[in-house]
Specification:
homodimer; 260 residues; alpha/beta; Rossmann fold; N-(1-d-carboxylethyl)-l-norvaline Dehydrogenase, domain 2; 9 helices; elongated
Chain lengths: 260, 260
C-alpha cells in the first residue's frame, strides 16, 4: 500500500486529500504552519496533524508540497525524509527540490475551489520524476485519482500552465469586467450565466475557431463602433475590447485566406 | 392559440422553431431566400415553406425576423402583414421596423450552435414592443419557451449585447489563442477542457472577482516574466497576455484598497 504525506492546508492540499481518501492510498498525515487551520484540516480527513516539520514521519512513499510557489523551496529545505518529494506547481522546475534524493512534480491542471466536489477523474495530472522509477511511482499514484495522467517535461508543463492562465484567469477576468460593466448600468450578471456555460460547453466537441461568432468575427464594423461608443466612459474595458476585437479580426482573416 | 411565422433559416430560426414546437404555439410557416435550405428547414419541423415574401400569410400573431442585422431592414420593408413583426438582434433599435404598425424585439441571450439541444427554459429572452399591448404579446410568447423573460429598453439590451460579446466572443477567442499556442508546441487543447468547464461553472455561485486566481491576481512577477519569455516569439498572444494581466493587477489592487 502506498502512503503519502501532505504539506500545506490550502485548496490543493484539501483536494488531494479528498481524492486520495477515496483510494487505497494511506494518508499518513498533514503538516501546516497554521496550527488551527492545520488541525481542522487533519480532523476533516481524520489523519494525524504535524505542526513541526522536524517531526514529519520519514518513511512515507510520497510527500506532496501543496504550497504556494514562494513557500515550496523553503519548506523543502527543512524537510528531511527518505521518500519521494514532489511539488504541485505548474511553473517551478523539479530541480528546486534537488536537495532531496527523490523528487518530482505532480501538477493537476485545474483551478480548485473551496467546494470539494471536483470530478478529479477527468482532471489531467502532469507528472515528472527525477528518475524513471520515481516517474513510475507518481504515475501509479496519479492513476488512482484520474483517468488522465500526462508525463511531461518542464517546458511542456510551463507551456500548459501559460495556456491554463489564458483560459482560466483571463476568461474569469472577462467575467469580472462584464460583471462590473453591467453593475454600473444596474443590470444583472446573472443574465449572462446561461451564455457563459454554453460558451464553455461548445468547445468540448467543436474546435474553438469553428465556435467563434460575433461582430469582430464577421467584420461587422457598425456593431463594433456602437459598442465602442457605449464604452466611451469605460477606458479599461474599451481597451480590452479593442485589443481582443482586433485579434479576432486578424484570426478570421487568416481563416478566410486559408479557405481561398 | 397564438400563431407565429419565422423568416430566416439560420441557427436562431431553427432554435426558435424547435423551442416553439414543444408549446401550444402554432408555427404557420417559414420563409427563406434559399429554396433548398428553406425547404429542408420546413420539412424538419413539418411546417409550410414560402419562398416568396409576398405570399407570406398576413394574419399570424407574430413574425420573427431571425436574420442577420444587415438583412433585417430589407426583408422587413418587403413584408406586408398585419401582425406584430419582431427582430432577434441584440443591437438594432426596434425602430428599424417602424414601417410596420406593430413591431418589437425578441432577443434571446444565447449563442446558438447547430446542435438544437439548448435548454431554452434557462435562456433569458429580452423583449420590447412598440406598445404596452405588443410587449404583453411578446411576454406571453417568451413565457412559453423560457422561465426568464426580461422587458428591457434599447440601451439596456445594447449594454447586455456588449457584455455578451465580452463573455462569449472574447472568451472563445482566448480558447482559440490557447489552442493555437498549444498546437504550435505539439500539445493537446483537450488537456484544458476540464479547466475550461470548471472556470465557467465556478461563477454560477461565486462572484467573478472572488473566483479570480493566478499570477497576475497575486502579483507574482516571477511567473508573469517567465510566461512572457515563453511568448517571446508569439507577439499576438504576448500582447493579449500583457493587456489582460495588467487589467487583472489593476483590479486586484482596487480590491486590496477596498479591504484596507
Amino acid at each position: 500500500m502506498l502512503s503519502i504525506f501532505i504539506l500545506g492546508n490550502g485548496r490543493m492540499a484539501k483536494h488531494l486529500a479528498s481524492a486520495f481518501q477515496q483510494t487505497d492510498v494511506q494518508i499518513a498525515g498533514v503538516y501546516a504552519r497554521d496550527e488551527t487551520k492545520g488541525n481542522s484540516f487533519a480532523k476533516q480527513f481524520n489523519v494525524p496533524f504535524y505542526s513541526s516539520i522536524t517531526k514529519v514521519p520519514v518513511q512515507c512513499d510520497v510527500y506532496f508540497l501543496a504550497l504556494s510557489d514562494q513557500a515550496i523551496v523553503g519548506i523543502s529545505e527543512q524537510l528531511k525524509v527518505q521518500g519521494l518529494v514532489v511539488h504541485c506547481s505548474g511553473m517551478l522546475s523539479k530541480f528546486v527540490l534537488q536537495k532531496q534524493k527523490h523528487f518530482g512534480v505532480f501538477w493537476p491542471i485545474q483551478s480548485f475551489s473551496e467546494n470539494l466536489n471536483v470530478d478529479f477523474k477527468s482532471v489531467p495530472i502532469c507528472i515528472e520524476g527525477n528518475s524513471e522509477e520515481n516517474t513510475r511511482i507518481l504515475e501509479a499514484l496519479a492513476d488512482r485519482i484520474t483517468n488522465n495522467v500526462q508525463i511531461l517535461n518542464e517546458n511542456q508543463r510551463q507551456q500548459l500552465h501559460l495556456a491554463a492562465v489564458v483560459v482560466n484567469n483571463f476568461t474569469n477576468h472577462l467575467y469580472v469586467l462584464a460583471d462590473s460593466f453591467l453593475k454600473s448600468n444596474q443590470l444583472s450578471f446573472n443574465l449572462l450565466k446561461p451564455l457563459i456555460i454554453e460558451t464553455a460547453h461548445k468547445i468540448i466537441n467543436l474546435e474553438p475557431h469553428l465556435a467563434q461568432t460575433g461582430p469582430a468575427n464577421r467584420n461587422d464594423i457598425n456593431t463594433i463602433e456602437m459598442h465602442q461608443k457605449i464604452l466611451a466612459h469605460n477606458p479599461e474595458l474599451l481597451h480590452v475590447y479593442q485589443i481582443l476585437s482586433n485579434s479576432i479580426i486578424l484570426h478570421s482573416n487568416k481563416n478566410m485566406e486559408e479557405c481561398l
